[in-house]
Amino acid sequence: MPHDTSPLPLSGLRVLAVEQYGAGPFGTSYLADLGADVIKIENHKDGGDVGRSVGPHFFGEQDSHFFQTFNRNKRSVTLDLKHPEGMAAFRRLAAGADAVLDNLRGDLPARLGLTYAALRDVNPRLVCTHLSAYGREGSRTAWPGYDYLMQAEAGHMTLTGEPDGPPTRYGLSIVDLMTGLAAAFALLAGVTRARQTGIGLDMDTSLFDVALHNLNYPGTWYLNGGTVTGRTERSGHPSLVPSQLYRTQDGWLFIMCNKEKFWPVLARALGHPEWVDDPELADFKARLKHRGRVTELLDAALMQAPTAIWIERLAGKVPVSPVFDVAQALDNPFVHERAGVADYAYGDGTAARMVANPIRVPGVALPQRAAPRMGADNDTLLREAGLDDAAIARLRSLGVIAGAAPAPGPAARDLEDAGQTASA
């Protein structure tokens, strides 16, 4: 099917993003990838989005691999929102926007004038979406917060890892990423209502609330039955067996027989049809009771051949997967079959290679522009907002905006690691 036959799904949506690091930028990256005009508001006096300096890998100065990951397909304006004229310029931009998204500490949006109450006079349809660590109400509004803290307090670390090991975090900043998605979803929900009613509003989410929400069914088990779910060996499912890691001749295999129909298929494929009628293995209840025996039987059978052979025999019949490292995951031929990696162009013939957006729009090619240099769109967007050259020059002379930095390029120079995990 040919590309570019239809508009991008979010074409015409303009979002002002007072964001930095990971959670907020990840959420707005979904919007930008799908065609929204996402305008990053960066304070050049603080070095802009701190993600620009998060190492250890860089394409160029203030152009880290980390920053590119979260900020492709966006535009950048430098504004000091604490300066009266900086906020005045921001309000001009807000007058022509559909939404504002910030990922600031919970007490800061009201202080900076980023709430609906502060901005509705310039745009009554504006949706103000707030992503904070602990929310904009309650005893922790002024607390900073990061992903790993949420994993710890919301119980995730006691569900992750081996039973005899220490509490364990996920290998990725999943709370940041999911909170970014929740914020993007909230923003779109708010814009849908605003377009129907002509009235904007505030929408809120937080790292803590999303982490708690992600307790999901173990949370329901505790709230209704007092059951405290713990860790199981080999990353096993708490109740479904077999659904965990098993040993092969040369590594590991993850098998998930999460429907009863898969157990007989697996048993026969492993050369043990007698398992199907064994009363200790006959159904989920029996296999859960005898989980240790199931593990021993499957290990013994699977260790007779390497992982690749078992994938060849089982794929498409039983839910099964090899265990890859990051390199193997990205070099997987299926990833390339799915166009899961793409080049995001700087405009000078160079590109940053990144994982593609997982949302596919048949017949439409999603944009593939590299993240902007800080302040790259100052003059263009401020002119659109009604400022003439003299007014823009005045803002520059006052230090409210900065001149665009030199364009980054691929001639990378590694710097010291300047940051930690993504945060709100």
Verbal overview:
This protein has 424 residues and is an alpha/beta fold. It has helices at residues 23-33, 65-71, 84-95, 108-112, 116-119, 147-153, 174-197, 207-213, 216-225, 262-269, 284-289, 291-302, 307-314, 326-331, 333-337, 378-384, 389-397; strands spanning 14-18, 37-42, 58-60, 63-64, 75-78, 99-102, 127-132, 201-206, 243-247, 252-256, 320-322, 341-345, 351-355. Helix content is 35%, strand content 14%. The strands form 4 sheets. Strands 5-2-1-6-7-8 form a 6-stranded parallel β-sheet, with helices on both faces. A 3-stranded antiparallel β-sheet has the order 9-10-11, with helices on one face. A hairpin with a 2-residue loop joins strand 3 and strand 4 (63-64). Helix 1 packs across helix 7 (174-197). It is elongated and about 85 Å long.
List keywords for this structure.
14% strand, disordered C terminus, 3-stranded antiparallel beta sheet, 424 residues, alpha/beta, 6-stranded parallel beta sheet, elongated
